[in-house]
Amino acid sequence: MTRVLIGANSKSVRLNLASLFAPDSGFKIVGNLSIENALARLEDLDVDVVLLHLESSADERTLFALESAEISPRPAFVILTDNAENVSVDALRSAHAVLPLAAKAEEIIGAIHASMAGLMVFHRDLFNSLLLPLVGSEQPLDPSDRILTPRETEVLRMIADGLGNKEIASRLGISDHTVKFHISAILAKLGASNRAEAVTLGIREGLIMV
To answer: How would you label 6-30 residue by residue, b for 16+ Cβ within 10 Å and e otherwise?
Structure first.
C-alpha cells in the first residue's frame, strides 16, 4: 500500500488529484491539504509520496524549506505545475518527479512508482523549459527567495529571545511541527546551518533587533 499526501492550494485541484487514486486499491490518501498544511504535517503522517501542485514562487519557497527539514525517512516528492517558471533549481533539488498539471493519470501514477524506485522523472513537455537552460550554467538566486514572511520573522525574534520550540508554539497558538517547519524555512532562506547562525544573520540583515 502506497501512502500519498496531496498538497494543493486549490480545492478543485485537490479533489481532481484524489480522484486519480480511487480506482487503484494500491494507494491510500493520508491527507489532502493546502501546500503549507501538507508539508507541516509530514512528521505527523506516515507518508511514502507527497504529490504537490505548485502554482507560484511562494509555493516553491515552501518546498525549498524541505531541504533543511529533519524528515526521516524522506518521502518521494512529485511536483505538478501548470507553469514551468514556478519550478527553479532549488525546487528540482527537492523533487523526484516534475510533471505538468495536465498530465494523464497513468503518467502521474507511473511517475510515483518511478520516484519510489529511486528514479527522477521529468515530463517531456517540461524538459526544454526546465532542464536545457541548466546545462553548463548556474541560475542566480532570486533575492525574493530570501524574504522572510511576517510569521517567520516573528519566529526568528522569539528564537533570538531564547525561546524553545514548545514555548514558541504556545505563544503563537500553533503546533510544534509547524514551528519546526517555520524554522526550516528560516534556515533555508538565510543560508544558516543552525538557530544561532540564523539569529546572527537576521541581526546583520536588519530583520530583527536585540
So the answer is: bbbbeeebbeebbebbeeeeebebb
> In the CATH hierarchy, which top-level class contains the domain 2-134?
alpha beta
**pTM beyond 0.85:** no
Q: Interhelix angle for 150-160 vs 195-204, to 10°?
A: 110
Kindly give, in sequence order, each residue whose CB lies less than 8 Å from that of residue 75, ignoring residues fewer than 6 positions away.
5, 42, 47, 48, 49, 50
Grid cell, residue 163, equals: 525561546
Question: What's the grid cell of residue 149?
Answer: 514572511
Q: Judge whether 208 and 156 are in contact, CB under 8 Å.
A: yes
Domain boundaries, the chain: 2-134, 147-204
d(CA 182, CA 84): 26
Helix H or strand E segment including 172: helix 165-172
d(CA 39, CA 113): 21
Give me the CATH topology for the region 147-204.
Arc Repressor Mutant, subunit A (1.10.10)
pLDDT tens-digit readout, 70-100: 566 778 889 888 765 555 555 566 678 888 8
